[in-house]
Amino acid sequence: MKMKVYKYFLLLVFFSCKKENQSAAILMAIQQNGTLVTSEYVVNKIIKANDNQTWYKLGDRKILMSCEARIKAGVSLQNVKAEDVVVDERNIHIQLPAVQLFSINIPPESIRIHHLEVGLLRDEFSTSEREKMLSQAETQIRNLSDSLGILKNAQENASAYIMNLMRQSGFETVTINFKNRP
Amino acid sequence: MKNWQRISLILVIVVGLLLWFLSKNSFFPSFKKIFDAKEVAIDETPLLIKEIKPLAQLVTITAYNEILVDSVMKTSQGERIGAILNPLHFGKILTSKKLVIIGKTMVQVGVDLQKLSDDDIIISNDSIHLALPAAEILDIILNPSGTEIFSEQGSWTNEAVVDLKQKIQKRAEAIILEQNLLMIAESRTKEVLQQFLQSAGYKHVTIQFKTPLM
User: Fold this and answer.
1) With contacts defined as CB-CB under 8 Å, which chain A residues touch B64?
2) So where are chain A's domains?
């Protein structure tokens, strides 16, 4: 009897082993740019949802998740043209393009499920449903990112960095201004 | 045909035409829509700023990849018992579960200019020489909007999904290295900075890259 249980245990361990199949990858596109990223905001977002809107499903489902987003902003140096820079001996004036939001990164490892409540007659939230909710959270983060003041911060940092670089390069007076956002 | 019969026939035709016209113009909700499950909408919640970091990253290459990964696992005994007990599964027992994810990644490659020190800039009259840090991968982004759950059988924990997504990110990193994109990023960095510094009045701009620390 003991031997039989042992055999079943071994079989269970064998079949429980995770099997990775293959991965396929395509390099879709390469974009050349020249953006000086000068500010990163790390923000936390709470994602909560209550699934009780489908009339024929009995029982509710609730989920509480959280994620972190890394928002970057900067200035495109490749758009700086010769006429945007005025040099007068040891003085320089640079007009930089408007600062813009560069990227939003939600690292997968920052996604956490804190609370789950599933009614007796309901299925658990599937991976696909969780991804759709996270995608909605990403849109909310994108829409709110301007209000965080990241563009102002990125502009100040870009100004300070280029001023410092120009002073190191031997200029005495450096003035920088930014074009208006379109 | 009697008078009342003629009126009834006309009435039936008119009502039929009216119903056809209204349904054609989506006036009535379709039968399928009535039984469509409503998408779960998340609540609006504020963002909490955790950290503000000043950066000086010159991103010169952004690469976009599409990567597919899958994972097959035997279901645990607990999951099988759970499936038997669940009335919604109608006795359907999965002996294995499968998850296929297609991830669209965005990889930022460039130079971290915060690593530039005073000694790395040498100026003499109208010439400038920069010794820049080697190009590196600055970010590998795989966001939920770029994640497609292509196929899903069985129930998957958040940890297992995170594990698969990290595999996608590692594959994206490997593609950058295989395709020699660090070298391309360095030559693009040279172009951008040369153009910028020449606009600032330097006639001779030389840029070299330090070898990466292993």
Assistant:
1) 27-31
2) 33-178
